[in-house]
Amino acid sequence: MLAGRKILLIIGGGIAAYKSLDLIRRLRERGASVVPVLTKGGAEFVTPLSVAALAGEKLYRDLFDLGDEAEMGHIQLSRAADLVVVAPATADLMGKMANGQANDLATTLLMATDKRVLIAPAMNVRMWEHAATQRNAKTLKKDGILFVGPDKGDMACGEYGPGRMAEPLAIVAAVEDALLNGPLKGRHVLVTSGPTHEPIDPVRYIANRSSGAQGSAIATALVALGAKVTFVTGPARADMPLGCTIVPVETADEMLEAVQNALPADAAVFAAAVADWKVTSASDKKIKKTKGAKLPVLEFAENPDILHAVSNMGKDRPKLVVGFAAETDDVLDNASAKRKRKGCDWIVANDVSPETGIMGGTENDVTLIMQDGAENWPRMNKSAVGQKLADKIAMSLGQDK
Ligand code: CTP
Description:
Number of helices: 14
Structural class: alpha/beta
Strand content: 15-25%
CATH architecture of the largest domain: 3-Layer(aba) Sandwich
CATH topology of the largest domain: Rossmann fold
Bound molecules: cytidine-5'-triphosphate
Shape: elongated
Largest sheet: 8 strands, mixed
CATH superfamily of the largest domain: CoaB-like
Distance between the termini: 27 Å
Number of domains: 2
CATH class of the largest domain: Alpha Beta
C-alpha cells in the first residue's frame, strides 16, 4: 500500500503518455497522491485537463510561471514528494538527465530533487538500442536512477523490440519497491513527539508550546525510507505522520511507559518536549474558587527523564539514540553538555528563543552534535530537517549491518 506517499509524476512526450493516465489512477487507488508535471511534448499526447482531473491535484507545466513559483517554488516542488517518477521517459529526457541539463520545469525538478527517481523509458526500438541512449542509460544507473522496463513487443510505430513503456501495474510495483524497500527496511525506529500535559486537576494542566511538527516530520521521513516507526506522541497540534504505529499519551509517565513497551528498536529519536515536572498535589476533583479561601499552591515532583533512561539501559538500548536540546542561551555548550549528561549518541540542538520563531513555527535551525564533531545545518523547513536526520540515521544504521 502507498497510503500517504506523494509521487511527483513527470509525463514526457511519447505515445505511451496515455498509459500514464492509468498509472495515476492505479497509484491513487493504492492511497498515494500524485502531483503531475506535464512536459511540452507530453501535452501533445494527453490533455492537461485529463491529467489534472485524474490526479485531483494542481498540474504543473511551465518553468517560468510566476504564479506557480510564488505558490510553490520548483525546488520545494521537487522535494515535497517521496519519489519522482518519469513516465514515459523519452530518449530526449534521458539524454538531458544524463548530462545534467535543466532547461524546462521537468529537467529542473529532476536536477533539484533530493529524492530517488524512477524512470520508465519509452521510445522506438532503434532509439532505445542507439549507442547514445545505451550510454545515457548506463550513466543514469550509475547515478542511482531506478529503471522499470522498457518492455519488448509491438510498437505504435509498427516495429517490434524493446522500447515499449512498462505497463502501469509494473510501474506501480516498482514504485512500491522503491518506497517500501528503502535503506531502513526491516529497521524499527521509535520517535517521541509533541508536548506532555501534566494535570493540575481533571480540567487543568501544565503544557508547553511544542506543536509536534518536527517529530511528525522526522517520523514521515523515516517511513519514506522504509522504517517501521512507532510514534509516541503527546497531545500535538501537528498532523499525525502516516504509515506509523501511533501511540497517543498525555503525561511524561505515560510516555515513558509507552516507550518501554515499544522497545526494542534499532534507533530512537526523542523529539518530544517532555515536561520536567509534574504536579504532585494534582486534585482528582476540579479545584474551586471559594471566596475567602487561600489561593491554591501547586507542589511539583520531577518527571522521569525518558531520554536518559533509554540511553543508559542495558541490553535493549537502541544502537542509535538521538536527543533534542531546545535551548535559549549558550546553545552549543549547553547541548554538548546535555549529550554527555543524558548519555545519548547524537543531540539535535536548536535555539528556541522567541525571536527565532522555531517553537511552534515551520522552520528549524539546528546543529547536529555527535561524538566526533558537530554539523551546523542551514535554516530549513522542518520537513527538510526530518529528511536530513532520517538520511543520517539510515547511513549510521547501514554502517553497522
Ligand atoms: N527528555 C526526556 N524526558 C524528560 C525531559 C527531556 O526524554 N523528562 C528529552 C527530550 O525529548 C529531548 C531531551 O531530553 O530529547 C532534552 O530535553 P530538554 O527539555 O532540552 O532537556 P532537559 O533535560 O529538560 O534539560 P534542561 O531543562 O536543563 O534544559
